[in-house]
Amino acid sequence: MTTLLSPEELEARLRDVGRRRYHSLHPFHKLLHGGELNFGQVQAWALNRYFYQAMIPVKDSSILARMEEPELRRAWRQRIIDHDGDREGEGGIARWLKLTDGLGLDRDYVTSLRGLLPATRFAVEAYVHFVRDKSLLEAIASSLTEMFSPGIIGERVAGMLKNYDFVSKETLAYFDKRLTEAPRDADFALDYVKRNARTPEQQQAAIRALEFKCDVLWVQLDALYFAYVDPAMPYPGAFVPEAARARQEA
Ligand SMILES: O=C(O)c1cc(C(=O)O)c2c(n1)C(=O)C(=O)c1cc(C(=O)O)[nH]c1-2
Asked: What are phi and psi of 234, to 5 degrees?
């Protein structure tokens, strides 16, 4: 039988999930941050991750719609504004497209999702469905990977600026804002989970939700690794970096 944890013990268990399973541990990220990917592989990462970015406000709208207290909605709606902006050209999704522009990818191609790997699509959709179908507590707990993101973002920006001449501070500007947004969002969500997971079952469900979310992030990198690093077999129809395409056509 599982026992009731104190809020502090629950937090420690949640943080432990990140220590063991966060996508900072994935070999694809180690290559990305260490400067060991080529231009086409970095393009593939940015193109696939666009779909994650684009669906974040969709999943947050679904969480918002289930919040019955104005106080909660007021806090959560900021996430949607952060990603969508208040007008065309503003917000996180627009900033992500600056990155894909900077990497020479055609905007219409990126947003059409034609080049996406199927595993990216399935993982991101699973996240959207999870928050829709599970309890509000689990939906909020699944966002808690953001507790761990400032560390990886710091490492990523420093590593990419140092190692790749095809990225700049301007093209990586997306991540600047995340360094303040993510801790604010994670503090709020962690406080909610600590206050509302009041039974051993609810606490276990919150921990499992965070594990699930780590899986959502992890499999996206598995898919990139398989398609673009080793054995480098892009799914038929998915994005093919120019160099690989030229080889295929030769
Ligand atoms: O760069 C990253 O490694 C990273 C990780 C995560 C995360 O841990 O889920 C998010 C983001 N970035 C991010 O930019 C973002 O907007 C975001 C929203 C969420 C969420 O679950 O609501 N996670 C993340």
From this structure: -60, 145
Closest residue to atom 10 of ligand 1, CA basis: 146
**Pocket residues for ligand 1 (CB within 6 Å)?**
56, 92, 143, 145-146, 149, 152-153, 178, 217
- Residue 35 backbone zone (phi > 0: left; psi -120 to 50: alpha; other: beta): left
In this structure, are residues 220 and 123 in contact, taking their beta carbons and an 8 Å threshold? yes
DSSP 16-34: HHHHHH-GGGSHHHHHHHT
Sign for the pseudo-dihedral over CA of 178, 10, 137, 48: positive
Helix (H) or strand (E) holding 78: helix 70-84
The CATH topology of domain 7-249 is: Heme Oxygenase; Chain A (1.20.910)
CA distance 114 to 230: 22
pLDDT in tens, 114-135: 999 999 999 999 999 999 999 9
- Whether ipTM exceeds 0.90: yes
Domain residue limits, the chain: 7-249
How far does the centroid of ligand 1 lie from the alpha carbon of residue 146, in Å?
6
State the DSSP code for 177.
H
**Which amino acid, 234?**
P
* pTM for this model (two decimals): 0.96
